[in-house]
């Protein structure tokens, strides 16, 4: 519980871990007034009002240009994916840009180029925007906010229809749809974005040839929903798989059991993780989804993913269980450990 | 061959199963509680990360001793770093360290209050930053053990920029582990020594302590098979009734150690008494800069009082020191998961990823092997 009188905001409060959770719950949830089919209190990727999905996100990544993308590309994929993870088809975005006095127009143009090409890739349109400039030193270069709206695609209806064979599902892809026995599928290699960003930051002292995976996943989501049996989907951004799976376990009241050997990751990423003493499960991704899939659809969903360039490395990594609590990982040597929500951004260890 | 594919041999599931089986057989033969202590945060990380405790028999317990750098760094040293940061000096340090609280606040909180704190991955990063920003004053908050002390010594001998100073809080592992080996109060049967530290110091400095204690000690690497193998070697020694200093980490550890690193350290530091946070002052456990390098000592430069020998401070009501020494389990501390949690840590063992309390909390360890308690 946050001490309202004494505490101040630290970077931990923005890092997607348990600090951020308590900030949201203790401070922002006070805004919830009961509105929305899926409202603020769901703390999901977005809200649903009048059958429209509505979501927003702000982007502050440093460096703003990195291997595999830039802050512009990220500001489209992040918001598009939030809509897509609820089962929606994103259609339009708003774009708010806050600039620091002195920011090179040339860089801004590169960023808007990134926004345009990524929006085309996703099939969405930037339809409204806002620009503000702040005095030098008041912000660091650029901050972008995008909001997105999405509609309900026929594939989602088909998917929910299929789910009805085994359960009484909600109308959208939400954690309450999870049932024991559901398979956990990740759509590709884990950790690419985090390691790419980390290695392009100064002062890290190592370089890894890994590109960010930032990509819009809405078409991929339509493909898997066309197969059917998808109970929920989430993108493992900040906080990574560890945060996502704990979120599922908490919201569904079920346990999740995953196997380390099944989790797909690039060799370079695994090396960096070893080298820096990080935890792969806590690394952020910007072009991956985690799906909970009804077991009879597991193979078909995997096959659909494997024929999609954004899902070619997809793997089934575990399942939802009712006989355990929380998230348990079976390690590569056969040991077991609980996975907790990460606290703050991953930091390398000392020794 | 890539780094990670080379290391895969040390994580092999078939081999690990075989060693686990052997451990179970030996433990059954020995048939009494065996308490093994390791003294390194990285070992704790390997043990929890790979779920090694879940693979051990009920009568074998591996317990963390004083080895996590964040846990043993005195709060007064953190206070000094915080003070420098709030006075406008750029403080560089390792990631975990920024979250540990001094008597008033952590470096992270100092950052939220306007301090310039930079997380770095090695001393070279601090040197580079100081060179690139010559108009600013930098301090490197040098915490850790003999594993990181040589790198700092090496940079000092090479020559460093004038705008970089050092707040040295290094500790000498053999002195700390040795004192624990000599003490019988803890009821520890055997020791897993930190492979990287012994790589530097060699096994030699442990010999006098071993002669007095006659307890098995195995220098151990950091892959899961290293740890399992060393547990096997310890049980074997106990079963045969023949304790010795053994080397599991033969690909790195020797009797003499890294002579070059030792020479560099001897040129730069003296060994003096060193305080381990919440525990005690250990003889010859603290590194101090030699006279020739005093001008780089942040304590000298900024007139900070040297409190490393005498400092003592506790979190009110907490039993951090006993946890660090392995004499109690975290749940025996009245603050554990009540006033002190990973989300809101009060004591250092709850801050660091290598701290026992943090690890118990994050991995929901309740009572790993009750048969071991005596």
TrEMBL record, chain B:
Which UniProt keywords are given for this protein, alphabetically ordered?
Iron, Metal-binding
Matching entries from InterPro entries are given as: Hyd_form_HypD, HypD_1, HypD_2_sf
- N-terminal signal peptide: none
> What biological process terms from GO does the record include?
protein maturation
Any GO molecular function: iron ion binding
Keyword Cytoplasm listed: no
Q: Does the keyword Iron apply?
A: yes
UniProt family annotation: Belongs to the HypD family.
PANTHER family attached to this UniProt entry: HYDROGENASE MATURATION FACTOR HYPD, HYDROGENASE PROTEIN ASSEMBLY PROTEIN HYPD
Name of protein? Hydrogenase expression protein HypD
């Amino acid at each position: 519980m946050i001490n309202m009188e004494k505490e101040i905001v630290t970077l931990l409060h923005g890092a997607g871990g348990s600090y951020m959770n308590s900030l949201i719950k203790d401070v922002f949830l006070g805004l919830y007034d009961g509105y929305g089919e899926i409202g603020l209190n769901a703390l999901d990727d977005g809200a649903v009002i009048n059958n429209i999905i509505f979501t927003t996100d702000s982007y502050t990544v440093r460096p703003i240009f990195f291997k595999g993308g830039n802050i512009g590309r990220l500001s489209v994929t992040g918001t598009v994916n939030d809509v897509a993870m609820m089962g929606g088809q994103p259609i339009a975005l708003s774009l708010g840009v806050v600039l620091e006095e002195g920011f090179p127009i040339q860089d801004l143009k590169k960023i808007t180029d990134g926004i345009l090409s990524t929006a085309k890739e996703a099939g969405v349109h930037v339809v409204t925007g806002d620009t503000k400039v702040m005095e030098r030193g008041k912000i660091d270069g650029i901050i972008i906010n995008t909001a997105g709206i999405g509609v309900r695609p026929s594939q989602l209806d088909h998917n929910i229809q299929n789910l009805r064979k085994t359960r009484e599902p909600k109308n959208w892809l939400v954690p309450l749809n999870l049932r024991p026995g559901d398979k956990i599928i990740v759509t590709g290699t884990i950790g690419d974005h985090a390691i790419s960003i980390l290695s392009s930051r100064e002062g890290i002292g190592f370089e890894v040839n890994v590109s960010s995976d930032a990509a819009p996943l809405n078409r991929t989501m339509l493909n898997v929903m066309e197969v059917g049996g998808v109970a929920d989907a989430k993108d493992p951004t900040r906080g990574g798989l560890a945060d996502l799976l704990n979120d599922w376990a908490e919201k569904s009241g079920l346990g999740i059991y995953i196997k380390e050997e099944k989790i797909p990751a690039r060799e370079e990423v695994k090396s960096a993780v070893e080298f820096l003493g990080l935890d792969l499960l806590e690394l952020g991704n910007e072009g991956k989804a985690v799906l909970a899939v009804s077991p009879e659809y597991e193979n078909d969903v995997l096959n659909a993913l494997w024929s999609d360039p954004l899902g070619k490395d997809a793997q089934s990594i575990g399942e939802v269980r009712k006989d355990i609590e929380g998230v348990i990982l079976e390690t590569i040597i056969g040991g077991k450990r609980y996975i907790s929500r990460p606290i703050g951004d991953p930091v390398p260890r000392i020794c | 061959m890539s780094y990670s594919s080379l290391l895969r041999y040390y994580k092999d599931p078939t081999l690990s199963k075989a060693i686990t089986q052997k451990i179970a057989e030996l433990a059954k033969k020995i048939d009494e509680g065996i308490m093994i202590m390791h003294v390194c945060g990285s070992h704790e990380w390997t043990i929890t990360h790979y779920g090694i405790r879940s693979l051990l028999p009920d009568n074998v317990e591996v317990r963390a001793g004083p080895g996590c750098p964040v846990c043993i760094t005195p709060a007064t040293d953190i206070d000094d770093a915080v003070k420098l940061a709030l006075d406008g000096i750029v403080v560089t340090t390792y990631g975990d360290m920024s979250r540990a609280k001094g008597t008033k606040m952590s470096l992270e909180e100092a950052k939220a209050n306007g301090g310039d704190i930079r997380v770095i991955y090695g001393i070279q990063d601090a040197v580079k930053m100081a060179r690139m920003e010559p108009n600013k004053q930098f301090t490197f908050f040098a915490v850790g053990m003999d594993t990181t002390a040589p790198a700092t010594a090496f940079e000092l001998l090479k020559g460093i920029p004038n705008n970089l100073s050092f707040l040295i809080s290094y500790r000498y592992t053999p002195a700390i582990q040795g004192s624990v080996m000599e003490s019988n109060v803890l009821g520890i049967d055997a020791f897993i020594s930190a492979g990287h530290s012994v790589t530097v110091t060699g096994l030699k400095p442990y010999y006098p302590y071993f002669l007095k204690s006659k307890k098995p000690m195995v220098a151990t690497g950091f892959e899961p098979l290293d740890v399992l193998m060393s547990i096997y070697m310890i049980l074997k020694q106990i079963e045969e009734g023949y304790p010795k200093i053994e080397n599991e980490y033969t690909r790195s550890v020797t009797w003499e150690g890294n002579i070059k690193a030792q020479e560099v350290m001897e040129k730069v530091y003296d060994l003096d008494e060193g305080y381990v946070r919440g525990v005690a002052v250990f003889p010859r456990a603290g590194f101090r800069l030699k006279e020739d390098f005093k001008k780089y000592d942040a304590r000298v430069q900024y007139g900070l009082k040297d409190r490393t020998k005498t400092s003592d401070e506790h979190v009110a009501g907490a039993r951090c020191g006993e946890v660090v020494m392995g004499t109690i389990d975290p749940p025996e501390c009245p603050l554990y998961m009540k006033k002190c949690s990973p989300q809101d840590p009060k004591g250092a063992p709850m801050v660091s990823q290598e701290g026992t309390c943090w690890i118990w909390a994050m991995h929901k360890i309740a009572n790993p092997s009750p048969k071991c308690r005596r």
